[in-house]
Design a protein that fits this description.
24% strand, elongated, five-stranded mixed sheet, minor pseudopilin epsh fold, 1 helix, 213 residues, alpha+beta
């Protein structure tokens, strides 16, 4: 029987990744992250706009509901003051919102603070502009007991002035960038509150668009 000579065995390869393989994996992950970052940032920015717009829309609908429920005029306004009492100053681009009842001129009753909320804590760097009307004279919106917009030059809060005209609030990032999708919340004279995309024109094919001015 021939003698078989067996040489020294090669050491088995250790388990794991080599340095080159690790560098390749890290490079690929960095590339994928760089490609995904712009779209992710865009999603975050547009989500902030949507969140603020939803909150504003809900607050406006609440103001209209309170007016019909209480059977009296109610004012909705933006303000930079903490909305916890009737003492606040209206502002067309305020960061908070407030709802109060309006005292009739022939009444000796006092206004009632209904509710308030903070808008821009849910969306940093989001800017709100409104209410914008055809005369650009309104600083707040007054809902009648039947839910319609009505004119009132002295509805109560400091600086407040209401017009019986359709109004809109524009919501966008304060540092506008390509890819942003601003939104608009509109209030018709009849009281209908609607959120729409100002980059689109309302039509059968674009139901999310805004109506022409």
């Amino acid at each position: 029987m021939p003698l078989v000579v067996i040489g020294p065995r090669s050491p088995a390869r250790s388990e794991g990744f080599t340095l080159v393989e690790m560098i390749v994996v890290v490079a690929i992950m960095a590339l994928l992250a760089a490609l995904a970052t712009p779209s992710m940032l865009g999603w975050v920015r547009n989500n902030k706009i949507r969140t603020v717009s939803d909150s504003l829309q809900n607050a406006l609908r609440q103001a209209q509901t309170e007016a019909t429920r209480r059977n009296r005029q109610v004012i909705f306004s933006l303000t930079d003051n903490s909305p916890t009492t009737n003492t606040y100053t209206t502002k067309v681009n305020g960061s908070n919102w407030a709802i109060s009842t309006v005292v009739p001129t022939d009444s000796d009753t006092t206004a009632t603070f209904v509710e308030g909320g903070i808008l821009l804590n849910v969306g940093s760097n989001v800017a709100i502009t409104g209410p914008q009307t055809s005369s650009n004279a309104a600083t707040a919106l007054c809902f009648s007991s039947i839910g319609r917009l009505v004119q009132n030059d002295t509805p109560g809060p400091t600086g407040a002035r209401c017009r019986a005209e359709a109004a809109r609030y524009d919501i966008a990032m304060s540092d506008t960038k390509t890819g942003d999708r601003p939104l608009r919340v509109t209030v018709a004279v009849g009281g209908q509150v609607r959120m729409c995309d100002p980059a689109r024109t309302l039509s059968a094919s674009q139901p999310d668009g805004c109506a022409s001015p």
